[in-house]
Amino acid sequence: MNDISTTTTVNTLTSLFARYGLCEGIVSDNGTQFTYEEFAQLCARNEIRHILTVLDHPQSNSQAERYVDIVKSALKQGLHNGEKIFDVLSKFFLVCHRLTPHTTTNISPAELFLKRQLRTVLNLLRSNATDTSSIVRKHYQLNFDRHTKERQFQQGSQVLVRDFRNNPNKVE
């Protein structure tokens, strides 16, 4: 959003609601865009509970604050590497955040939201590694089987048996 006015905020939220459905509640700070009547009408019309955080006490919304800390950390790392801020967020941070499983649910936000796991470059690498591993395993199996002979046993044929229960070195 280029503009954080109440009208822009309401229009953006309306667009999000049209795309993803209505939410049950919104937690926000006491910014003017969230305290004007237009925003209050949007919440009332759609039966959305609006919760304001305490003034000068951002810790009251610990989840949002933790997310802000993560974003700041990602921005600092990107700036140290000389990258542009948008590139850092779009290429690395958002993908990592959306694909990282939550510690409580053990499910990623993307999977909770879309009801499926996202396909990423890592999935492609894992798939290629699995394919390569199975090819190598088949190669080893063929190489091992090359030296074996298929034996046919008849009833009454003499065979050597090793009894591992009493004396493992004794062959009968």
From TrEMBL:
Q: Which residues form the signal peptide?
A: none
Give the source's domain of life in one word.
Eukaryota
GO MF assignments: nucleic acid binding
Gene3D superfamilies according to UniProt: Ribonuclease H-like superfamily/Ribonuclease H
Q: Residue limits of the Integrase catalytic domain?
A: 1-117
Task: List this protein's GO terms for biological process.
Answer: DNA integration
What is this protein called in UniProt?
Answer: Integrase catalytic domain-containing protein
